[in-house]
Amino acid sequence: MGTHSLPASSDVISHVLTSFPRVASHEGLTSLSGVWSELVLQDIAAIVRPTGPENKCCSDTQQHPECYEMRDEKFGCRRYWRSVPSLTVHDCQFETREQMNGVSAYLDGSGIYGATDDKLHLLRTYEDGKVNLTACELCDQTDWNTLSLLHRVFLREHNRVAEKLADTNVHWDDAKLFLEARRIVVAQLQHVTLNEYIPAILREAAQVDHELRPLANGFYAGYSSLNKAGTYNAVALAALRALVWMRADKIGDIESHIITSANGIGVAAAPDAAAWSMHDARDHGMPGYIKYLTDCSLSEDVKIENFTDLTRVMRSEYVQLLSTIYANVEDVDLLVGGILETPATGVAVGPTFECLLKKQFVTMRNSDRFWYENDIPPSGLTVTQLVEIRKVSLASILCANTNIWRIQPRVFIRQDQYLNSRITCEQYESLNVAAWTEEPLLPLHMQYSVNMSTEELIERKQLEYNAWLEQRVADPKSAAGTAASFSKANKDALLLANSSIMYELATNEILNGVHGLRRRRRQIFENTDNVLGFPNSNEFSDLLQNVDISSFLNHHHKSTHHEEVECPVDNSPCDPTTPYRTLSGHCNNLRNPNLGKSLTTFARLLPPAYEDGVSKPRITSLTGAPLPNPRIVSTVIHPDISNLHNRYTLMVMQFAQFLDHDLTMTPIHKGFQESIPSCRSCDSPRTVHPECNPFPVPPGDHFYPTVNVSSGSRMCFPSMRSLPGQQHLGPREQVNQNTGFLDASVVYGENSCICNILRGFNGRMNITTNPRRGRDLLPQSATHPECKARSKLCFIGGDSRASEQPALAVMHTMWIREHNRVMEGLRQVNTHWDGEKLFQETRRIISAMLQHITYNEFLPRILGWNAVSLYGLKLLPQGYYKEYSPTCNPSVLNEFAAAAFRIGHSLLRPHLPRMDRNYQNIDPPILLRDGFFNPDMLYQENMIDEMIRGLVTTPMETLDQFITGEVTNHLFEQHGIPHSGVDLIALNVHRARDHGLPSYNHYRALCNLKKATTFDDLSREMAPEVIARMKRIYASVDDIDLFPGGMSERPLQGGLVGPTFACIIAIQFRQSRKCDRFWYETDDPNIRFTEHQLVEVRKTTLSKVMCENMDHQTDMQRAAFDLPSNFLNPRVPCSSMPHMDFSAWRETRHGCQIGGRNVAIGESGFPTPCTSCVCTIEGTQCASLRVTDCNQLLREASREAILRDDVCTAQCGFVLAASESNSRLQQFTMPNGPGFPPHTNNLRSSPMPASFNGFKLPDLSQFIG
């Protein structure tokens, strides 16, 4: 500290040795503890040092900037090249100089096997999974190099384990044997360190810290991907290094180290190494000892202000020694201070080193995904394998691989005559590799499985063809046909499903066929419960997902039918500089361009729960009884009871559906020639299509008959299973036809083929001219087979469901109009932009507006502010969002799509109201059942305006378990055909089982609610009458389906949903923001909006979007989701709502006008004395200046110019008032009138941030937001 120089490292060590030349042997530890310390140190830390020219260090004339020589009294100048620097590991940015680690920070055996592929390659024999001990660079036995002997021991252990594995698994090849043997050896290395070494070094400190305490059974739950891995400089260069010097000198065999006592903590054993370690620490910028001492102190008031204060942690003679070496107490090096501390009782080191070692060992354990105790597929060990690893001790390893025949159980502790006396090796348990026995998936068996699967697929296709020939197909305008059109698969989804079905059939054959794994006597994986407490049906998934059967599959399965021309797959190279998304979501994530892309599978919060573990929907209760019929769940749990909301409008329902269609589209199977298989017959899975999944009308239903009166057959609800999309062996995963991003794909489509149909010329979207002279309507299509309109015309949009019901078509119309309105605004400020630029920039703005409305207006009402804040969903009032993560998965959650975001079904009312310009009801309202795929009424004059007013004025139904009979009894019902509709809520329950969603109780546990053991445990979240209804139909609380369970919870304070659905929805939208590289608030310089543009986007409200695009602008409340209120939410003229200023997007091509003169791009000027502006390609960016000398300002600028500048008068008004009589100032004039000279003067310090003009200064960016 201060300006004086530090004493040379070697001089410090010399003074310590002179004063205290010898340190007593340690009373409890063996010398082997020092050797093991070196083994651990080499495994997690290695300094990378360049090789510099010898004449460029210690030279007075040619000193290299990377030379940091050591100078001392004895040797003079000693060459030292600084450690190689590296970027900060977790964000790849340069902040301060950080040193590169030459090995991984994980305890992964890199010190034994090598830290590079090249070294590993040299070590392998490529025969039987073994290693070549003669090729081991670190195994060369030199005098007193016991560490080389330890390396040799573990490589012998590798070969011993590989031999036993080969005997047990004769079908394993060299690579499998090597990798599995290496995994076992690394697990043993970790276990010895955790179970023997750390307790020996830290003793009681390790026992009281649960993060360091070894587990006797079960798995370790402390790992998190959020825990940052890394080796601490202070540990590598001081704390752990000091433990290395505990090994005894001049001992060349392992057994002697086990017998001999360790040195006490000190530098006597390696003074030169200690000096270089101190020099390394200074090179690495490590703070002094006092900083670590205070940071590690458990007492907050510990202050070390002088040398005397150190007597708290070390002997007074050591304190006296330090005061003679160092000028200030802050100068004391960590290595010296830590070594001189008095160790706590039962601990080998002092409190500071103890603290640092604990931090390092905890980090080493909780940040390692491959830590041996973790239960993380596919790298985790099974329970049986973990039991075998826990049998291992260093004593047993040494017994198996050396000539030692007798050894104490705890080899790091000195032997005694009692519990740690030496015993013979036969008494130690050894590793039994039988736990790694794996029965082979022979190529012949795989080929047989694929052949059987191919035959079954052919049978399925034949069944589809026969059903089409016999016309067992549904009318597209029927209830089943309409429901199918709501989940219509495109060509690409069907092609994807073809291969998925093959993988699924092969999985079933491999597991359940005649030669299947489940028929074999010995299973590969144990069928134990996982940590969440439900049966683990994926016992074979680790194995199967790593089995490649692609070579056995016939890939010539694409249809050659002329109509089946699929949209080209977007696999183009990614351009990280473009600010525009791809339509398919490709390249959003630059590391994995397919993440979140359309036509990829949903993500999951919990593993799937299928009846057979592969694909069959769950039908059996936990008790073994059948699960309740979905229709019974609907009628008992979700009766039709109206309960209007007292605050929110039907617009909440309609926006929720629109938003859902942007994020999710779960397609279902089709039949031959694009037909819709008729799945209403109860035997349709056998007679029509294998993916038909009907369920019967239960006896005594209050609305539907149990028997079809015309045919006499059993009455069933039609249902077709969702398309699979997995491209590997294992459980079925459903495909999302939309992108996983909130990207306005509902407006523009999820691929370029759809967008090209919707796009017009010059940046516009295609429209239909309104026949009633109103504003534009959506594009029309005359080829919609499910269209029920008399005109035979239905509307099309970015999502295929645009005409599903009139209010949804109105919402689509609003956003198409908004696109064209925004595009015209951009065209006016940038007349030089072409149609492509106008379209892409408009699309970018529209997606930003949709994101802003969703997070600013919609989610707070759904979740309440508490959940919004806790899950990081609160938008920034200014500045940029900096939390984007390329490592998170943006794919939509299956639980969100198939259950949690179906909440809008509870908000529905049987009618869609209409209102005139005075907000008076217009009769008749639109009956929901009359509007399905029938948009003809939208051609009527003022109809869209009337429906908008109805949506923003009419209360929605309260979000609860009650659902209108319009969708439980009449969904998609055909006119004149009673009971032809379907039950939407029963379909929700059925769909969740189809998707393999676990039961509601498991998501309670996931979302930190108490997992219920009885129905009464639900009483905090559900009303007693709801629980009573649950008991009537469910045999066990673990059987409750996710949708009825989540819908029945009491809502969160300030929100609409209960805690479980709030958890799922909040996780989804957290991912939608955090995982989206193109999120509208992003700070990515290639993508971001300017501050000014963000200010304009943040003005967006749903009310303003509606107002701007209605045929006739009148009054509307500012919050469209809230009912109008004279006080809280009054109706105001649309013109009074904030509007977007498109000048924020004006491109500057020929400079800017600043202070009455033209300033080139990149240059600055002063329009007024106290304002500085910079001309950028995005326009003029200005900021206020801080005036440090008002009198100087008065001498340089005219009084009139200063008075016109409020920034000046706010800072120098008092000087202006005192200078009215000063004629000298009155004579001062500016050459450009109100302007200011373009030169920079010394009065102005760094500009102050001014949020009103959107200018963000680089040096203050860390404080923004």
UniProtKB/TrEMBL annotation:
Keywords, sorted A to Z: Heme, Iron, Metal-binding, Oxidoreductase, Peroxidase
The species this protein was found in: Cyphomyrmex costatus
Biological process terms in GO annotation: response to oxidative stress
One GO molecular-function entry: heme binding
InterPro entries in UniProt: Haem_peroxidase_animal (IPR019791), Haem_peroxidase_sf (IPR010255), Haem_peroxidase_sf_animal (IPR037120)
Record-linked Pfam families: An_peroxidase (PF03098)
Listed CDD domains: peroxinectin_like (cd09823)
Binding site for heme b: 905
Descriptive protein name: Peroxidasin
PANTHER family noted in UniProt: LD42267P, OXIDASE/PEROXIDASE
